[in-house]
């Protein structure tokens, strides 16, 4: 498996399906696109798939007339990312440039995606890294005196036994966003042979996926060939957790992280 030192790349978090405009589109037509979709405050300007520039809502406002063509107001001093760039480097570019979105172009200058400051933030939230999986594997080996194997495969949600009894409604919205854009991290699952697959990490992800009608997800699987009893399996049984449907959604309270932020903002 990959090591902890392998950095996540832009290609893993960028949105590949990008709305673009042509240099010959009018300011008025692009302004309509901005008004129709709150998620877009600007667009890459492309000839075919070759990125020529970027036009923002501010650029449109500064146009002399609505009939002006996009190439007359777009920025040609383009800041872009490469799909192989480390997420940490892309975040520095976004921070230092003050822009919200980076077009992602390949070596030939062709647009292959776009990455936003929101994507950068989400790349750091509950990220299931190979190092995190390796640490869990070592812990299981030391506690239970067994050998483990680490695999990467698709798992059916119906085969999962949850080990967490509740998730938070506000956090589910973030997971829905990730699933829709192909940004969701792999699950972390333990296969002990004598149990259904134990879900160790990714309860918000699977709950959001189940609501979206998704039947299988990518996962890091820690396989144990010996039929051992894990503490998390016993906990699941005690709490009556057998399927994803048994995970309750808390909609009367925020995720603990949100509550912490609110307390910091309102010390009274």
From TrEMBL:
<dbReference type="InterPro" id="IPR051257">
    <property type="entry name" value="Diverse_CBS-Domain"/>
</dbReference>
<feature type="domain" description="CBS">
    <location>
        <begin position="14"/>
        <end position="70"/>
    </location>
</feature>
<dbReference type="InterPro" id="IPR000644">
    <property type="entry name" value="CBS_dom"/>
</dbReference>
<dbReference type="Pfam" id="PF00571">
    <property type="entry name" value="CBS"/>
</dbReference>
<dbReference type="InterPro" id="IPR046342">
    <property type="entry name" value="CBS_dom_sf"/>
</dbReference>
<keyword id="KW-0129">CBS domain</keyword>
<feature type="domain" description="CBS">
    <location>
        <begin position="74"/>
        <end position="133"/>
    </location>
</feature>
<protein>
    <submittedName>
        <fullName>Signal transduction protein with CBS domains</fullName>
    </submittedName>
</protein>
<dbReference type="InterPro" id="IPR016427">
    <property type="entry name" value="UCP004699_CBS/ParB"/>
</dbReference>
<dbReference type="InterPro" id="IPR003115">
    <property type="entry name" value="ParB_N"/>
</dbReference>
<dbReference type="InterPro" id="IPR036086">
    <property type="entry name" value="ParB/Sulfiredoxin_sf"/>
</dbReference>
């Amino acid at each position: 498996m990959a090591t902890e030192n392998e950095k996540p790349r832009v290609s893993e978090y960028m949105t590949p399906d990008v709305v673009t405009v042509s240099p010959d589109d009018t300011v008025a037509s692009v302004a309509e696109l901005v008004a129709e979709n709150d998620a877009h405050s600007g667009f890459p300007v492309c000839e075919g798939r070759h990125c020529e520039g970027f036009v923002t809502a501010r650029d449109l406002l500064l146009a002399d007339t609505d009939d002006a063509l996009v190439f007359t107001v777009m920025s040609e001093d383009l800041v872009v990312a490469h799909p192989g760039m480390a997420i940490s480097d892309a975040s520095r570019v976004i921070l230092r440039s003050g822009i919200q979105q980076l077009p992602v172009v390949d070596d030939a200058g062709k647009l292959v995606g776009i990455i936003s400051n929101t994507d950068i933030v989400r790349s750091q939230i509950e990220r299931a890294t190979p190092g995190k999986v390796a640490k869990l594997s070592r812990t299981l080996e030391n506690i239970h005196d067994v050998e483990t194997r680490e695999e990467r495969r698709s798992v059916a949600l119906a085969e999962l036994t949850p080990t967490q009894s509740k998730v938070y409604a506000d956090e589910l919205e973030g997971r829905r966003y990730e699933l829709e854009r192909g940004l969701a991290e792999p699950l972390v699952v333990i296969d002990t042979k004598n149990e259904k697959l134990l879900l160790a990490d990714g309860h918000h992800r699977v709950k959001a996926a189940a609501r979206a009608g998704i039947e299988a997800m990518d996962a890091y699987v820690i396989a144990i060939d010996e039929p051992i009893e894990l503490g998390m399996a016993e906990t699941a049984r005690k709490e009556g957790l057998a399927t994803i449907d048994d995970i309750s959604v808390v909609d009367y309270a925020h995720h603990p992280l949100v509550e912490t932020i609110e307390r910091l903002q309102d010390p009274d």
